[in-house]
Amino acid sequence: MADLKTPYDVIIVGAGVAGCSLAHALASTPRREPLRIALLERSLEEPDRIVGELLQPGGVMALQQLGLEETLEEIDSIPVHGYCVTRKENIVHIPYPAGHKGRSFHHGKFIMNLRNAAKKAKGVDVIEATVNDLIESESSQQIIGVAATKKNAKDSENISLYAHLVIIADGCFSNFRTKVMGPRVCNPVTKSYFVGVILDDATLPYRYHGTVCLTESAGPVLLYQIGSHDTRMLVDVKAPVPSDLKGHILKKIVPQLPSVLHTSVTDAVQGSNFRKMPNSFLPSVMQGGNEFGTKEGVFLVGDAWNMRHPLTGGGMTVAFNDIVILRDMLAQIQDFSHWDEVREGLRRWHWDRKPLASTVNILSFALYDLFGADDDNLEVLRTGCFKYFELGGECINGPVSLLAATIQSPATLFYHFFAVAFYSIWVMFTHARLIERGPGLKPQLITPSFTDYPFLLIKAILVIWTAVVVFLPLLWTEIRWWSPNDKNARTTILFRYGMPVAALATVAFGAFKLTF
Ligand SMILES: Cc1cc2nc3c(=O)[nH]c(=O)nc-3n(C[C@H](O)[C@H](O)[C@H](O)COP(=O)(O)OP(=O)(O)OC[C@H]3O[C@@H](n4cnc5c(N)ncnc54)[C@H](O)[C@@H]3O)c2cc1C
């Protein structure tokens, strides 16, 4: 029975990508009694951020399933038909699978559309307030509400709101992660930073395509058009971020970009205020209350719970897909005060989201390790990856479908990743390569001969080892977060991951034996 202090069924903290779509999804689900939802956001002004500007086709599909496809309209959004990867003037075209299209836009405009959709949804109160704390029940230590400071026209007002369920969607810098996760808290690891600028009327190597520029001894550079005249450039920089960013980009990055971009990038960098965001890694941890060491009455969604590298532009796609599954799960629960039912739902949600979320998460860091390569063996893999794409056919279709999130399969990702690793070795043995000969001397093109083979054989083993060391820990972070008592999770892991991984490992080992 509803507590007198509980005017809401659900409180959602944060009206960003996940929060707005969740509020809209819950309100739009037919139920016996319509839900009363409070969506709290610290600022309802249009956000101005360098995040969430390209939505992959898989994200567009999830948005359609949520009935929110109109939020992509009337914001000067740009169609995205695929990617191209460049190494100086060498360019590989990687179109999305036929019939699929992504969209890119100014983040703030898209968020305003999402907020309007949430505001219009029946039973949703959008409140401009900063949530300061979670309110715990004194008897059960369950979370029963939030304490917030409401932004009024003249001054601020402290309020307390209560609900059966509190959902935290306060993004990558979440203030409540620790409180919700308790002893199992897992802190984000920042791998690098993206520094963002906007280019005016830039010409990209392929129009309406995301562009990934690989550079030597610096991180990858990402470009995509986000409006009729605006193109976002994100430059990956490792910590410590150089104090002279302008000099770093002009001297180290620009000469390695395709020449078609030189003028617009130089102009943008000259007069720019750089924006910087951390590229963080945060594996998802099972939630659901005491059994899993987390709080009851509350759970996390979106970046507050799970983050991956933004290189592959997958964050919003994961968030929307999560909301689709969560909506269907919560639709089966009539009363959110029945925590046992919510806990069981969260457990199912955790595993049901894995095919897409794990694929996107692993791909983002595996590609980042390859494209941001700063070691010799990774450089071999990076060259092999570029050449793999040049083969065309399934060598493009497979990886791009994973990137687009139209295929949700860590096993397919495993297959292509190790196919790239073996192909990289083949390339190393058979293709001529440029060797640096020291200052003042021109690099020399060397074709491997028989005398190089012993050295190359050792290198091949190191390259495979490097591929394993990149991929398997990422896979492990996706499957290890289960409770030892959770028998269903163990079965899921065994069948969904264990079997394909074992099968592919056998194939990979066989291929290795046949090749060498
Ligand atoms: C550099 C960079 C580039 C990226 N580019 C892409 C991309 O191109 N494509 C893609 O799909 N993903 C991208 N991402 C990831 C994507 O931005 C996130 O996955 C997505 O925004 C997560 O949504 P969210 O709702 O969890 O958080 P957010 O969208 O950040 O929303 C959180 C909301 O909570 C509010 N809030 C925070 N604290 C409080 C509080 N105490 N009280 C009330 N409200 C609060 C905030 O104001 C905000 O509105 C990128 C990430 C980075 C770092």
From TrEMBL:
EC number(s) recorded for this UniProt protein: 1.14.14.17
Catalytic activity: squalene + reduced [NADPH--hemoprotein reductase] + O2 = (S)-2,3-epoxysqualene + oxidized [NADPH--hemoprotein reductase] + H2O + H(+)
Topology term for the membrane: Multi-pass membrane protein
Pfam family, any one: SE
Entry's transmembrane regions: 413-432, 453-474, 494-512
GO cellular component, one term: endoplasmic reticulum membrane
Residues of the Squalene epoxidase domain: 163-434
GO terms of biological process kind: ergosterol biosynthetic process
Main location group: endoplasmic reticulum
Example of a GO MF term: squalene monooxygenase activity
Cofactor(s) of this protein: FAD
Keywords in alphabetical order: Endoplasmic reticulum, FAD, Flavoprotein, Membrane, Microsome, Oxidoreductase, Transmembrane, Transmembrane helix
Enzyme class per UniProt: oxidoreductase
Family label: Belongs to the squalene monooxygenase family.
Entry-linked PANTHER family: SQUALENE MONOOXYGENASE (PTHR10835:SF0)
Function: Catalyzes the stereospecific oxidation of squalene to (S)-2,3-epoxysqualene, and is considered to be a rate-limiting enzyme in steroid biosynthesis.
Name of the protein: Squalene monooxygenase
Organism: Lentinula guzmanii
